[in-house]
Amino acid sequence: QVQIVESGGGLVQPGGSLRLSCAASGSIFSIYSMGWYRQAPGEQRELVARITSGGSIMYGDSVKGRFTISRDIAKNTVYLQMNSLKSEDTAVYYCNVVTSPKYSEYRTSWGQGTQVTVSS
After folding, report:
1. Could you say which of 4, 56, 63, 81 is the most buried, measured as most Cβ atoms within 10 Å of its Cβ?
2. What tens digit of pLDDT does each residue of 38-64 get?
3. CA–CA distance from 10 to each of 64, 93, 114 (Å)?
């Protein structure tokens, strides 16, 4: 079982910045990737950013150039630096952890979500 602790969400004004943190623990011997997804009211959950164990990074189109994902391997933690925030970034942000306990088996775990609200 993977435990996920998210932090860093909150209220910020347009143009401001926030940094989200996601720490994984428990059955995390074989993490394949960690990342962030978000879901706004009435919208589908979408990829924000994702980083694999090999260092490959993927960003959602809407956040490219504004958000940066990074990791601390020793701490099993990923960070999402969010700059130039827009009202459209308002959503619940969910940390996603994918583990590969054996061969081609991949398992995904989700954090409970942290609210990010961008508003004046």
Report:
1. 63
2. 999 999 999 999 999 999 999 999 999
3. 21, 11, 8
